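Posted in: Structural Biology > Protein-Ligand Complexes

Title: Requesting predicted complex, 2-oxoglutaric acid in pocket

I'd be grateful if someone could produce the 3D structure tokens for the following input. Sequence and ligand are given below.
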Amino acid sequence: MWDKIITWCRLRRDGYVVLRQFLDPGEVSALRGLVLSVYELMPDCRSPEHLAAHFQSWDGVWLEELPAFLKARDTGLLARYDEIGGRIAGRTQAYFGGAWQPYWLRSFFRRSTGVKLLPWHIDADAAQINRPQSFNVWLPLDAVGDGLPSLEIVPRSHRAMRRGPLLAAGPYDRDDIVAEFGGAATPRLSPGDALIFDQFTLHRTQRPKADGYSRLSCEFRFFRWPWRVHLREVLRGSSTGRLLLRGLRRVLGRRIGF
Ligand SMILES: O=C(O)CCC(=O)C(=O)O
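-- Reply #1 --
Done. Output follows.
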């Protein structure tokens, strides 16, 4: 239990946390095999249109629409996707609590070849998260940090960035802003390790030592509603809960807040 509390406190304090061996070797090879098989199919993808267009423009595979494509193409692969996706969601919830829901709409596989390096940004605006609380479970499928580029993270930038206005990614791309926060950290990660960071934490692709590399990574984003909304949804989910909710509304009126 203590390791989970410490993990949560680190994420809150630093805006990121590294979880070594978040996935075991069997899960890493299942995920890697799945991602490679999906990438083999993707050049033929014509629909859903949004999935096909994003694959064409930046080689990314949006997870929200992937099941529809796999259902039409390869149900075996769909079953593998459901299995590993469910495990990653379950593992994340085991660490951070069941209120964190997978945010498939904002999750994807990425094959990065260094053609377009992402500059300093926060996901809250660059990834259009549009939820009060969200974090990214970044899972590289290749070793990163020495040869292949990891992510550079600006520790403890998330609180200040949350207070600022949401901007397009560009204006954050200034090294003086990063220096004000005390500089960046670059985690070295092996496949199976997870880098988990808040949607307001400044980060970018580590500048690679050489052009022309290829690395695979997955970004599983999670969000949770404020506790009041969560409680309301839980209560709405059962007849006793709905009864209780009605009673609370009668007694507390507007003060109940939902
Ligand atoms: O994969 C990368 O190099 C950058 C990923 C990233 O920063 C993001 O998706 O927000």
